[in-house]
């Protein structure tokens, strides 16, 4: 079956040497097999002839043994080459996919989703590697083998040789009619695989919640249903492959029967010696061995082609960011960060921000407040240049964002997110992500600023204590403090705190806010917090509602306006008093 996929061919860079070597080895095996068949056919055909001598028998046995040794050695070599080709394909494909995913900024990862990234880099790669190690060599070999055998059989019977050659070569385009069905099935297959994998991962992550609400049986039932859907799609692939196999095998055996019949008729009519007829019989079956190899590789190639569609979705995501280094600086925005008339909307959703103007002057603490979903975090992601505005511009110290690469911007601005992620490794390695060359004195000073010094000293291995499972053994407050320390070590001039205390206990929250307030003396801070009492000391507060800045000013100015901010503050104050009581 012809399964030529543009994406897979595009990803084959660096693999063609292995593919051609595998094909060449298969050709050597074919030559040795052909010689073996010719020796055996000739010997059996002349066995009862008086001209057969002991020397002829000796030569025939040696020739057959020699061919067998070559076949055996080169089959071992073929297995080794296929293994190396598979290993090379896995490595290169994962490098390509991982590289692409890592080039996607945080705001664009939702275009593919983390589940798709996992299935593409793990499951898809495992399915695709056989396309290069088995299918493409089989496809090339299925074209070469019939042509070679035609010239070897032509001297025995040109009619039979031509007939078998035509049938062999016609099987390839004939089977390509199944490609249409594959195109319809492959997207459905990968969608169901993504669906089941994502649902399974959700269940693992939310196992405690499922148990608490007695929903684990229901979740299990839904998972079984999704697994059944995936199984049905796999069976659909199997059905296409089996149909192709049935059609091809029927044609092959019918062709062999016809060629044997023609050879027998030629022997009966004294037009062909018995030895030649036996050779035709042996080589006639070999004529289709290349097609059989291709059919065996086709089943895996079917899933390879469907996997390629999923990978193409990732590779087609545009990771190029607008970069215009010649844009003129705007001196009126030279003091800090300025968002001017910025609008933004996520793909497939309503616009999140509408003509937003926010000024973050150097040395100030600026807070963004408002109800959940009003666009606060989107503003932070735009400042970090995880996202680019649809309209409007952002300036950093007078320089347009589009005149800087994202990496250049992030040397000046850093974020402490709502949930800090810690990587497997040591505490020191996680802290030094912000800056590698840090003295022990500087590291100790930052840890003291973040109320972490005593904690790290209490550990048996100190900063060389290993962290696993995303810092699962640390409390939420400790992880957030490590995130703050990591941000401080980066020496970034601007620090964004995006709900940095929303998932910690009250004691840790107080310690973190004390740390943030100390930072306000030396750094420029952008604070997003649902607790308005914690941002009351900010130099300027921007109040957002449905993507619009509806109020701005310091805490006292906003209270005096008795508007949206005043209502939020009073409502929160009442709730906090009730909680205390």
Structure description:
The protein starts with 5 loop residues before the first helix and ends with a helix. A 6-stranded mixed beta sheet has the order 6-9-10-3-11-12, sandwiched between helices. The chain has a 4-stranded antiparallel beta sheet with strand order 2-1-4-5, covered by helices on one side. With 581 residues, the protein is α/β, with parallel strands linked by helices. The longest helix has 53 residues, at 216-268. The protein has helices at residues 6-10, 16-45, 54-103, 114-153, 158-175, 179-205, 207-212, 216-268, 274-287, 289-315, 376-383, 406-409, 427-431, 440-449, 453-458, 476-489, 506-519, 555-561, 564-580, and strands spanning 337-345, 351-360, 365-369, 391-396, 399-400, 413-416, 425-426, 466-467, 494-498, 524-528, 540-545, 548-553. Among the domains are: 6-315, ABC transporter type 1, transmembrane domain (ABC transporter transmembrane region fold, Up-down Bundle); 417-492, Rossmann fold, CATH 3.40.50.300. A hairpin with a 2-residue loop joins strand 4 (391-396) and strand 5. The model has no long low-confidence stretch (mean pLDDT 81).
């Amino acid at each position: 079956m012809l399964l030529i996929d543009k994406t897979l061919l595009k990803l084959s860079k660096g693999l063609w040497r292995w593919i051609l070597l595998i094909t060449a080895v298969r050709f050597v095996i074919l030559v040795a097999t052909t010689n073996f068949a010719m020796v055996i056919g000739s010997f059996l055909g002349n066995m009862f002839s008086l001209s057969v001598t002991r020397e002829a028998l000796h030569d025939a046995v040696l020739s057959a043994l020699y061919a067998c040794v070559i076949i055996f050695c080169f089959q071992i070599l073929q297995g080794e080459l296929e293994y190396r080709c598979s290993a090379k394909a896995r490595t290169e494909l994962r490098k390509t996919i991982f590289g692409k995913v890592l080039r996607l900024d945080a705001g664009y990862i939702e275009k593919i989703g983390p589940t798709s990234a996992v299935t593409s880099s793990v499951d898809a790669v495992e399915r695709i590697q056989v396309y290069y190690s088995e299918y493409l060599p089989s496809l090339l070999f299925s074209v070469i083998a019939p042509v070679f055998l035609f010239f070897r059989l032509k001297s025995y019977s040109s009619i039979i040789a031509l007939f078998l050659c035509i049938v062999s070569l016609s099987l390839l385009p004939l089977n390509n009619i199944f490609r249409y069905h594959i195109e319809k099935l492959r997207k459905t297959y990968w969608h169901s695989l993504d669906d089941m994998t994502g649902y399974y991962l959700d269940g693992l992550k939310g196992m405690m919640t499922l148990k608490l609400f007695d929903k684990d049986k229901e979740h299990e039932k839904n998972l079984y249903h999704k697994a059944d859907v995936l199984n049905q799609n796999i069976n659909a692939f199997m059905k296409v492959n089996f149909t192709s196999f049935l059609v091809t095998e029927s044609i092959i055996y019918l062709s062999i029967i016809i060629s044997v019949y023609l050879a027998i008729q030629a022997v009966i009519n004294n037009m062909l010696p018995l030895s030649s007829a036996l050779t035709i019989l042996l080589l006639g079956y070999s004529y289709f061995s290349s097609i059989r190899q291709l059919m065996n590789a086709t089943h895996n190639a079917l899933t390879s082609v469907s996997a390629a569609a999923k990978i193409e979705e990732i590779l087609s995501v545009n990771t190029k960011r607008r970069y215009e280094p010649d844009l003129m600086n705007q001196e009126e925005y030279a003091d800090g960060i300025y968002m001017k008339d910025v609008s933004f909307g996520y793909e497939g959703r309503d616009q999140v921000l509408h003509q937003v103007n926010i000024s973050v002057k150097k040395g100030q603490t600026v807070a963004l407040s408002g109800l959940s979903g009003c666009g606060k975090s989107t503003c932070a992601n735009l400042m970090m240049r995880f996202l680019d505005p649809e309209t409007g511009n952002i300036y950093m110290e007078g320089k347009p964002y589009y005149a800087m690469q994202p990496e250049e911007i992030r040397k000046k601005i850093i974020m402490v997110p709502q949930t800090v992620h810690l990587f497997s490794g040591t505490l020191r390695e996680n802290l030094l992500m912000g800056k590698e060359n840090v003295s022990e004195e500087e590291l100790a000073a930052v840890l003291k600023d973040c109320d972490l010094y005593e904690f790290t000293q209490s550990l048996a291995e100190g900063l060389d204590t290993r962290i696993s499972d995303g810092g699962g053994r640390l409390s939420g407050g400790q992880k957030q403090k490590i995130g703050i320390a990591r941000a401080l070590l980066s020496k970034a001039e601007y620090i964004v705190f995006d709900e940095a205390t929303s998932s910690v206990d009250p004691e840790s929250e107080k310690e973190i806010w004390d740390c943030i307030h100390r930072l306000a003396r030396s750094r420029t801070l952008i604070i997003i917090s649902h607790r308005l009492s914690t941002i009351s000391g900010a130099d300027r507060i921007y109040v957002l509602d449905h993507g619009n800045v509806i109020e701005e000013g310091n805490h006292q100015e906003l209270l005096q306006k008795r508007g949206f901010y005043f209502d939020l503050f009073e409502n929160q104050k009442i709730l906090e008093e009730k909680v205390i009581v």
